[in-house]
Amino acid sequence: MPSNLMNRRGFVATGLTGLALTAFPLSALAQTEASAKALVVSVVDEINRVIASGKSERAMIRDFEKIFVQYADVPIMARYVLGADARSASPSQLKQFTQAFQGYISNKYGRRFREFIGGQVTVRNARKIRAGYEVRTSVKLQGSSPFEVTFLVSDKSGRDKFFNMFIEGVNMLLTERTEVGAMLDARGGDLNRLIKDMKQNKVS
Question: Which of 187, 164, 196, 180 lies closest to 100, judged by CA?
Answer without folding.
Answer: 196
